[in-house]
Automatic annotation (TrEMBL):
EC number annotated for this UniProt entry: 2.7.13.3
Lineage: Bacteria, Bacillati, Actinomycetota, Actinomycetes, Pseudonocardiales
Organism: Actinocrispum wychmicini
UniProt key word Kinase: yes
Keywords recorded for this protein, A-Z: Kinase, Transferase, Two-component regulatory system
Major enzyme class: transferase
SUPFAM superfamilies named in the record: ATPase domain of HSP90 chaperone/DNA topoisomerase II/histidine kinase (SSF55874), cAMP-binding domain-like (SSF51206)
A Gene Ontology molecular function term of the record: protein histidine kinase activity
Official protein name in the record: histidine kinase
Reactions that this protein is recorded to catalyse: ATP + protein L-histidine = ADP + protein N-phospho-L-histidine
Amino acid sequence: MEEKLTADDLRELFLFEKLDDDQLAWLAHHGQVETRSAGATVHDEGEPATCFFVLLEGTVALSRNIGGERVEMNRTDHVGSYFGATQVYLAADVAANQKYMASVESVTDTKMFQLPAEEFGPVVREWFPMAVHLLEGLYFGMQNTQRAVNQRERLLALGSLSAGLTHELNNPAAAAVRATAALRERVAGMRHKLAMLANGTVDQRTLTALVKLQENAVERVAKAPKLGPMEASDREDEVGDWLEGHGIQGGWDLAPTLVAGGLDVEWLAEAVDLCPQATTEAAVRWIAYTVETETLMNEIEDATTRVSTLVGAAKQYSQMDRAPFQVVDIHELLDSTLVMLGAKFGAGVDLVKDYDRALPPLPAYAAELNQVWTNLIDNAIAAMDGTGTLTVRTFREDTCLVVEIGDTGTGIPPDIKDRIFEPFFTTKAVGQGTGLGLDISWRIVVKKHHGDIRVESVPGDTRFQVVLPLTVPEEA
């Protein structure tokens, strides 16, 4: 026979002490006493919230599932403590879809008063209509506020990334425009020199040799070594002296172009020997135009390649035209985020990548993980205040993949370390942060991917470790 509590028994509990006799009688009739032995589970996180519990005797522990492990969040032996379907006051259609937010386990033998949520909910709304309106307003108001602020946080991040991407795109685009304008002038000059070489003063055999020299010059440009400032200056002086000795006007202006293209005095001497004395200057300038046009075309190629790379990184970052859930290479996600945030690094921040390329592909919501990397990397750069080293590391830990974002900034003070994942908590100045970046990251990693975020911090060494299971999340 099931055990029941009397109205007098219920009046002894702080939760029910202000109720009238009829209300207590209703609770006594509809509720019953449940017992659990030590180590038994009362209810599991994620199950439908069907019962409301009040502790009568013993000790219970509340835990959450983090990274596939059950982590204890609280423990109590306080008589009258309540748990389970604590949001029964919500409208019936909303309350019916509620789930237990945590798991509860009996640490010792326990005795609890249990009420069915589907019966308790309607009477709570009937007995306390004003309180229910206030609680519903608070519940839905907080949900709407957090949703709006989350959207604002994403828009702020998008605006910052867009500004950075625009800056990154502007540099190669402007370089391509400048190089194209210069190339147009050099091609026009090259046509002029070609007309001078072909006006009859140069025989066909010599002209053929010059064309071969031109081709050879193009090959040397492609293989031209990178010279240091001192070495380049010495070679320019040598070539300038040679040009001046051969009566070529403005030779000092041509020398840097020829040296940058990998041409030296020996090569020039060989070229001049193929030409009549009267055409030496025209031949040298023709070759100089060849070198410069080839260099400008290389600049245009580099600039357009950079633009293409940035567009590709933006597409990878946004996961445009891709399914929300997919199997991805974690390093591609990290690299695309680093490219998008490139404008924030500045000259004083060094980037170190320590990737474990043997890691298997990760089943994940790629676009949302990119938001996690954005928040963590952006915070790390801000913590270093323009100077330091950002380290992005990946490695495997049992059945999980770990991404570590480290910085050499000031660190997180111990007194606020436990609060950094709280919604709206921020140490940034007013207007510089909403306090939701880490909260959003935590929910993406823990709630959606069933992973974990760990933090280790001392001055000069702060590390955020994102732990992601290599298995497919259930809801995916």
